[in-house]
Amino acid sequence: MIKGVRGAPDILPDEIGKWQRVEEVARSIFHTYGYTEIRTPIFEKTELFIRGIGQGTDIVEKEMYTFLDQSRESLTLRPEETAPVIRAYLEHNLSARASLVKVYYIGPMFRHERPQAGRFRQFHQIGAEAIGSDHPAVDAELLALLQQFFHELEIQEVELHLNSIGDPGCRPRFREHFVASMLAREPELCEDCRMRLRRNPLRILDCKNEGCRRVVEGAPKPIQFLCEPCTEHFKRLEELLHLLDVKYVINDRLVRGLDYYTRTTFEFVNKTLGAQNALVGGGRYDGLVEALGGPPTPGIGFAMGIERVVASLPKDLQAAAALQGVYVATLGREAWEKGFWIVQALRQKGVRATLDVEGRSLKGQLRQANKEKFRYCLILGEDELKKGQVTLKDMKEGGQKSIMLDEAVERLVERQGP
Ligand code: AMP
After folding, report:
1. What's the pLDDT score for residue 114?
2. How far apart are CA 203 and CA 196, in angstroms?
3. What's the 347 CA to ligand 1 centre distance in angstroms?
4. Are the CB atoms for 312 and 363 separated by under 8 Å?
5. What structural domains does the chain harbor?
6. 307 in ligand 1 pocket by Cβ < 6 Å?
7. Cβ of residue 353 lying under 6 Å from some atom of ligand 1
8. Which residues of the chain are modeled with pLDDT < 70?
9. pLDDT reported for residue 318
10. Residues 264, 106 contacting (CB under 8 angstroms)
11. Which of 176, 239, 368, 414 measures 20 to 30 Å from 58, CA to CA?
């Protein structure tokens, strides 16, 4: 038997309800906040990710699924979608349609990481990008959107961590102090980071190695070196977050080691999840569009791991959301035919409905209704049918009552219709 690839799990029918719920809530909230969907290809030219994510990062150095196609062009399965979105933004001149372009995406990403709980090689992200404005209101709105998303999914354990990492104006001074502190602790750094220290010292900030992270903890922080405009931007963002009642904590260790990442950085963390507890990562990238060959254009975005959001859903929400539709249970051939017709009528009205085709006993059918998480069971027995009646059993509340066969479809559509 051929098995699936390690780190690329199947999402089975039992779990799919939770995924669909997360995606539905996301789509509806994006719509409210003025974000429209964009779909970019699963693979891109390798060069796009090298430039967009940056040489010297873990993703580009170790984690990309890169291959030569039949015409010997180097392609890469997307490890993230910000670079593809910016590519599409430039290629299709989206800025001509709106000065502020707000898009979202949902789909699989690929990274060759060591698989473990909450970390996969194929995983899924919901993300958004707002391109064309450096106004702190865009940052505040994006964070309000995420807070609302977690609220609607009843995920209460999340905490927003917020930081500012400055811009090319204040970075040189930070860099100077940072390098001095790294040089002092060089022996504690991993081999890659000792190389980075010579070539791209700020990339040490992104290293996932435990030892390097400990060293970085003790190093100077970008927020201590913010220039006047960056301080002003961060102050205004905090005011706007208070205005919108968005809760957050400052976390001065949230950093990114690439030059085109600027100012706001954030994460939503679920502390109950264990080691892989970041649900969302995001921030400003006022230099990225230019780095990808476009005109200077500010932007901000985030990406969220759907696997980790699904793992954070409250248990009872999962169960309650699942009870839906009508299972028609029948006894005898004549009742089955009536039932088959009723199921068809319900389906045409948009109600989830089914009936047994495997010859189960009445008891077996009720058990099946329960197993398949139907909200109602409509029972058609021989004697009842003669009187033109059927029994409606509520699988959630537990009660049951007799209703007229003629009215059954109408009554169920009222309760379960679209
Ligand atoms: P990043 O694109 O690295 O900033 O990650 C953004 C979010 O995507 C993280 O906070 C995680 O929720 C999720 N994520 C990133 N890498 C993985 C992975 N290998 N497996 C599962 N989720 C991931």
Report:
1. 94
2. 7
3. 39
4. no
5. 13-170+226-312 (3.30.930.10), 323-415 (3.40.50.800)
6. yes
7. no
8. 317-322, 417-418
9. 58
10. no
11. 176
